[in-house]
Amino acid sequence: MQKSPWIIHYDGSSCNGCDIEVLAALTPMYDVERFGVINTGNPKHADIFLITGSVNEQNKAVIKNIYDQMPNPKVVMAVGICACTGGIFRECYNVLGGPDKVIPVDLYVPGCAARPESIIDGVVKALELWEGKRRKRTGRESIQT
Amino acid sequence: MDTLTLILYVAFAPLLGGLLAGVDRRITARMQGRFGPPILQPFYDVVKLFNKENLVVRRSQTVYIIFFLAFMVFTGGIFYAGEDLLLVIFSLMLANTFLVLAAYKGSSPYSAIGAERELLQIMAYEPMVLFYVVGIYMASKTFYIETIATTQHPMLIRFLPGIFLGFLYVLTIKLRKSPFDLSTSHHGHQEIVKGITTEFTGPSLGLIEITHWYENVLLLGMVSLFFAPNLWMGAGVALAIYLLEIFIDNACARARWQFTVFSSWVVAAVLGFGNILALTLFG
Questions:
Q1: Which of B63, B72, B91, B190 would you label with A58, given CA atoms 20 to 30 Å apart?
Q2: Can you give the pTM of this predicted structure?
Q3: What residue numbers bound the domain in which A93 lies?
Q4: A-B Cβ pairs (cutoff 8 Å, strict)
């Protein structure tokens, strides 16, 4: 099991509800850093791409770009119902739907807004996926930690 | 030449430096009312980084990082082998130059600003570091660290209180702690993302981490040299100073480069040069 997930958080066109919950996970109340989680803000350092909100014509290219800048192995997590399906915005003229319309998404964390507990749960699930991808990439069984 | 301490440094400095970084992160978390990551977290991070892909803008940037590591190990090696203190200072400078060159190779705006700020930081701390060498020489009459460390003489800090305090001031810059973590920071977000390390991924970022561990152990060694010949006491004081730096890191906001450079120069002129002047006049 991998112990150092670094996250990049991108707000698609979220109402900010899920973003606040993502950042709440970093506060003393939930303190995700105890699992080694760092909110990097830099795609080149990140392992997990955490997207909140739906994707629209404006940010389609941005999401694609961030995804391409992340080094392998990487996991994409859609947080909140808007990021899963487009949510209440799905019928807006400029909304494409969730980020899975642009890049491959590995994990969906539903909720409006997604609770910090479920976000942390999602990150822990993402770790298992990350470990699987690493094994596929390097062909080695486990990291020696 | 003390081969044993040299081998101990090359083999165990990353271990000690990594543990220090882990304790640093835990204490920082406690100061912020959080539980904090495991003490071994920095090692988990580096192992993970070596399992990631090495995405580069230009292949030569990794080469510069390898030189950064090599010269840092060389610098610490000659320090702990008890060789010439002047050589230590100059090769430390060279090692840092490789990091700046590597960051310029990244050619993104963030890493370029990080590199510019690193140059400003070097400009800020270098005068005080030179006064450190001059002061140690004037107090002990030799540049050879082994002679300084083993000869029986009154503790160096009794002659160098000003230089000690001035060195502590620039140590905050060298350890990349707030208020002087301009070029890159230990903490997640910064106004220039990760500054000088922005363009490094996976293994090369891991190498930068390991180099910082080597560097931190070297810097703490330089602090403890003030307490020669009583080096164990020096090591204790160096650790206490590291704790003080963690406190300063958490208590301060990031300063602007103008303040960083000019305050360091004022400190070097008043405490560093003042101390040397006093030694010349009354020593």
A1: B190
A2: 0.91
A3: 6-138
A4: 82
